[in-house]
# Entry
Amino acid sequence: MTRQELYETGKSILSFAHWRNRLIFWCGAIVIGVIAAGFTYIADYAQQGFIDLVAFNKFFPLIVCPVVLGLAAWLTSVFAPGAAGSGIPQAIAARVSEDPKERLYLLGPQIILGKILLTALALLGGASIGREGPTVQVGATILYLGAVFTKMNPEMSRNVILAGAAAGIAAAFNTPLAGIVFAIEEMARAFEHRYSGVVLTAIVLAGAASLSILGNYSYFGFADGGYALGRDWFAILALGVMGGLLGGLFSQLLSRGGFQLSAISKHVRLSHPAVFAGLCGLAIAGLGLLTNGATYGSGYQQAKELLHGEIAGSWSFTISKFLATVVSGFSGIPGGIFSPSLSVGAGLGASVAHWFPTTPVAGIVLLGMTAYFAGVTQAPITAFIIVLEITGRQSLPVPLIAVSVIAAAISRLICPTSLYHALAKTFITSPQHQVLGSIPR
# Structure
């Protein structure tokens, strides 16, 4: 490098614009962590409010679920249509889009407040949703708005969206490694290595901010499967196949079935977002009554209790939670599928634990969680790393890797395109009015 080139490089590094962009980016990453922590409290309070309501009268959900879900769907369609559904498909679509207006529709200022408050409202209505997917969209939005403010070039903006999404998942689960893998495997499927520092910095800063508020915790507490490959190979194979089949069915229902259900609802004149979501809420209330309230909300508590052997698994919970999550996805309300998927997977593992009496129940539940989650997302590396980190395991167990790979492969036979990428295409290839309303996202 010549003396002139060294001078120009040093001048660029010391420029105000250079450090302004980084300062805004660093502050944005910290804000993601703080908002993710606040979102956790808001979601927990909303869910507890619904639990208290059910405890007062178990039949109240027959009124509350339809009314609140209908209200949430109407508010979403009017004030923040880009906030509907999980939020991960929107982040993926915004990252590949070249249209600034489309990006602001998916990652505009209205998304931050709308996603948080409307997800909390849906949890207050008993919907089977989680906050982790919404946190991904909020994280992507915060850093993207910073990129817009600093007038970053389109290539850098795409990678800032990637970094914000990764920071969101890391802060939501307290899983920094999963944030890195999620950025590569699910959000981008590939990204240029020179931007890895951007992603890592966002994850570190967002995670540090979240930890300073919530403390150093393990999402589901600490659990160890106690695996032995020679003993547990049949359990790994069986859970991999079952998790893949059930996860693939879930993905197919949400990516295909929602459009067919929307067409039927239009035929019988029930296509208004509020009316359709209200009917979904009634179905959720019915499933909750059948399971004594076990299918309401994120499923976090049920998954934790199943993992630690505090309650016994049952097929009725597993199937009902599966259906409640599908219906919640159909409704078009804001809300993610990560927590409910982990809950369904835990139920699946606990339901078949008696088939494998020589394997600890916690081990079978962990296999079920990993298998079903991998089947839903078709992101096997993300699946087993998230389960590793949220259960506090310090080793890298081959059984969880094996079961996630098997499940993802089986899922692809049923649903060739992964759920999030299939849903993201509706935002990329369709006019905005065609992706609003009661179709799943």
User: Anything to note?
Assistant: The CA atoms of residues 16 and 37 lie 32 Å apart. The radius of gyration is 21 Å. Residues 190-194, 430-441 have pLDDT under 50 and may be disordered. The chain is about 75% helix and 0% strand.
